[in-house]
Design goal:
mainly alpha
């Protein structure tokens, strides 16, 4: 595989699986087998191998992640998102799964799910090129379509369809964040207020993010779906424990701004406490059966 001899690699992996059925060592064999097929452009065969691997080793998150990558290249974004979500449930600490969930939701126009996944990514991987790009994407989504159109006038543009609590067939619209999105856009107006005109970017983000967490808390019991069940308990508890300010500065680590570095250096104990809490957070109890 490293030599890019993908045809030979897939043939050897296929033979290995035939010779050693049920062996624990096949976990990595399935991964490389699927990857080598994908590298040959055999996407559907690759997905079939990942599915075999999932059946044999359901707790191996890389199967779900690699399957999601292949589906993304096939432009099957909805199916790829499902695969990434499954991988994130198996391993909530896998930064690349969070990155993928955020970016696919961003592409699909799912504002709040994308923001939550970007935020979770930044809690895991706050520095580096990916962090810098994801912070910029998250800030863009949080500010949204809010423009100052006059001295005392602001225009907010929201997709009216996203505000509905029900799907087209009349059933409950799972993972609906329409009202949360409207609230988020309203909170963007705060940053335009003269009272906050001297706020730093991280301070403005902290205020808006706290409002988002509060809105999620007030609506949690009335809503359902993967994003309500998986992500919202994390951010609700983050606010309840007083970690939103610390998270804001951690999330802005990649900016390299002096005041951010100074704050983090002067609040090392709070940063340690945040990471300890985040590391121990029970993701599995927050997911409904």
């Amino acid at each position: 595989y490293a030599l890019e001899k993908y045809k030979d690699c897939s043939a050897l992996r296929k033979k290995t699986i035939e010779l050693h059925p049920g062996d624990d060592g096949l976990e990595s064999v399935y991964i490389t087998y699927g990857n080598s097929l994908d590298a040959q452009g055999k996407s559907e065969e690759s997905i079939a191998v990942y599915d075999e691997g999932i059946k044999a080793f359901p707790q191996q998150y890389q199967f779900y992640f690699n399957k999601g990558i292949t589906l993304t290249t096939m432009k099957e974004l909805t199916l790829s998102l499902e695969a990434f979500e499954q991988g994130a449930m198996v391993n909530p600490k896998h930064a690349s799964s969070q990155n993928a969930i955020a970016r696919v939701n961003h592409d699909l126009g799912n504002r709040i799910p994308a923001i939550m996944a970007y935020a979770r990514f930044l809690a895991i991987e706050p520095e580096g090129e990916r962090a810098e790009g994801n912070l910029a994407n998250m800030r863009e989504l949080m500010i949204g379509n809010v423009t100052k159109t006059g001295k005392n006038a602001v225009t907010i543009s929201v997709n009216a369809g996203s505000l509905s609590d029900t799907a087209a067939d009349g059933s409950n619209n799972a993972n609906n964040f329409g009202m949360i999105e409207l609230m988020l856009m309203m909170s963007s107006v705060v940053s335009l207020d003269k009272e906050h005109k001297n706020d730093t970017e991280v301070e403005a983000f902290k205020i808006q993010f706290e409002m988002l967490c509060s809105a999620l808390a007030s609506s949690k019991e009335k809503n359902s779906g993967f994003y309500w069940d998986y992500y919202t308990p994390y951010f609700i508890e983050m606010k309840e424990k007083g970690f939103t300010e610390t998270f804001a500065y951690i999330a802005f680590s990649s900016t390299g701004d002096g005041y951010v570095k100074k704050w983090l250096k002067g609040h090392e104990s709070e940063v340690f406490e945040f990471y300890e809490w985040s590391r121990k957070f029970d993701w599995y109890s927050s997911i409904k059966e």
